[in-house]
Amino acid sequence: MYRLSRRHFLSAAAGCSLLAPWSRVLGANNDIRVVVLGVNNIGRTHMLGFPQIPGVRVTGICDPDSAVLGKRAEEFSKIHGPVKTYSDLRHVFDDPDVDVVVVGTPNHWHGLATVWGCQAGKDVYVEKPCSHNIWEAGQMHKAATKYNRIVQVGIQRRSNPELKEFFQQVHEGLLGELKVVRAFYLSRRNSIGRPSGPLKPPATVNHDLWSGPASTELKRVKYHYDWHWFWNTGNGELGNNGPHILDLARWAVNGTQLPEKTLSIGGRYAWDDNGETPNSHIIRYEFDAAPVVFEISDLPTAKGKKDRRSYEGINYGIVVEGEKGKFVGFDKGKLYDPDGKVIRELNKGSGPDGGRQHHRENFIKAVRSRKTSDLNCPVHDGHLSTALCHLGNISHRLGEPVSFEQMKEQVKESAPLREAAARMTRQLSANDVPVETMTVQLGSRLTLDPKSEKFINDPAANALLKREYRAPYIVPEQV
Ligand SMILES: NC(=O)c1ccc[n+]([C@@H]2O[C@H](COP(=O)([O-])OP(=O)(O)OC[C@H]3O[C@@H](n4cnc5c(N)ncnc54)[C@H](O)[C@@H]3O)[C@@H](O)[C@H]2O)c1
């Protein structure tokens, strides 16, 4: 049934190519009609943010959790009046009165929802991480191109003009030759628990639709959000906050393709829980301009404390070290000369809703102009910053447990990595992790061909470029 409808829309889309771009598809008064998929948390900000743009209406919201859907419909209707509700995203794609879908679902749905959206003739704003795996990002790009769709990835600092100008100057030599980019996401989270016995999804959720391409296995007590910590549905902290931070690092080194070499070290410590992804993680990427070393921690500075670690005063962001100076910051920050004197401040920030509003406005501008070149974060850019996360996770998953002493020996050739590893080891000790007797996962040393985005002579790593999709929720080989 869904297939039939989809064919209908494909032929309708083909038929309209002779008409003016929006003569058929836009709503009354050329309004752009938006439906938000997934409205528990970030989707809520999209539901409230898009209607603030002139000529844009949120006409519907979609969520397989009826409790979330009902709550958000009520909230929305108090401000803007009634909104159409959908529990199955396929009905959104089948709806001819929808121009744009915003994908605020968990990561495992991003690829398929974007491909289906493009096939159905919708433009798509998809949240970060761009994809759940590297292969499906390629399919998203192909679908956007084939169906002439506008697809923006929600890495919103790309819509910050001050950062754009600053990184352009860095590329032109503002900091001289770059030595290293240190990147940080130093947070504090809690164990998600190790429940005994089988778990059931909340009665309000259609768990089949929620799971989509992923297996329906359930190992978490908190249904929403904690899916981040399982490979089946999430990509760990690296794929959660990493796309934002690594995007800045990639911007700084002007990385227009993926690096050839990636190495990860880390593990999940101090918590006795079902989570699978690391809570202490370091990844080194070798870009042409300079190495990038990303440090992630979800533990406090010491056991029992309610704080988080910092480096040069920041918990998250980047430290770009060059011959002629250093930048420390996130979307705001300071530029230092080699003597440590502040010579410039970036202080404008990214604007309302953490930069998301400007990013939505940029997307809508491109929806109207029909030019992907107007987008600040098209699929290719969102993919590159997201794929860095996937590379780090692939290295981690294919690694082997070694002693902390052995790990130290293995990373000694790279000073930034060695220093980061020492900080992680000290922090774990302070959290009562017995590093003398415990192991750390030393990741596989990955070598990638940046052109084909395939690993060289590494079938195990190549196997992790793609997931197993659960029928009928399969990203097609031919989009
Ligand atoms: N750009 C940013 O700054 C930013 C910030 C937070 C989250 N995010 C991203 O947004 C996404 C969602 O994060 P969250 O914190 O809102 O997660 P969440 O788990 O709190 O909410 C996700 C919602 O999506 C719904 N959902 C699941 N399957 C669906 C489907 N098939 N159709 C429609 N809805 C579906 C869930 O029921 C839930 O209500 C994640 O990918 C996350 O990485 C981006």
Secondary structure blueprint with pairings:
Blueprint: H1 2-15, E1 32-37, H2 42-49, E2 56-62, H3 66-80, E3 84-86, H4 89-93, E4 100-103, H5 110-119, E5 123-127, H6 134-146, E6 151-154, H7 161-171, E7 178-186, H8 207-211, H9 236-240, H10 242-252, E8 261-267, E9 280-286, E10 291-297, E11 316-322, E12 325-329, E13 333-336, E14 342-346, H11 356-369, H12 379-397, E15 400-403, H13 404-410, H14 415-430, E16 439-442, E17 446-449, E18 454-455, H15 459-463
Parallel strand pairs: 1-2, 1-4, 2-3, 4-5, 5-6, 7-10
Antiparallel strand pairs: 7-11, 8-9, 8-16, 8-17, 9-10, 11-12, 12-13, 13-14, 15-16, 17-18
Helix pairs in contact: 5-6, 6-12, 10-12
Bound molecules: nicotinamide-adenine-dinucleotide.
What does this structure look like?
The protein is α/β, with parallel strands linked by helices and 479 residues long. The chain folds into 2 domains: 2-158, Rossmann fold, CATH 3.40.50.720; 162-350 and 381-452, Dihydrodipicolinate Reductase, domain 2 (2-Layer Sandwich), CATH 3.30.360.10. The protein has helices at residues 2-15, 42-49, 66-80, 89-93, 110-119, 134-146, 161-171, 207-211, 236-240, 242-252, 356-369, 379-397, 404-410, 415-430, 459-463; strands at residues 32-37, 56-62, 84-86, 100-103, 123-127, 151-154, 178-186, 261-267, 280-286, 291-297, 316-322, 325-329, 333-336, 342-346, 400-403, 439-442, 446-449, 454-455. The strands form 2 sheets. Strands 7, 8, 9, 10, 11, 12, 13, 14, 15, 16, 17 and 18 form a 12-stranded mixed β-sheet that branches. A 6-stranded parallel β-sheet has the order 3-2-1-4-5-6, with helices on both faces. Strand 9 (280-286) and strand 10 form a beta hairpin. The longest helix has 19 residues, at 379-397. The two termini are 19 Å apart. The relative contact order is 0.14. The protein binds nicotinamide-adenine-dinucleotide.
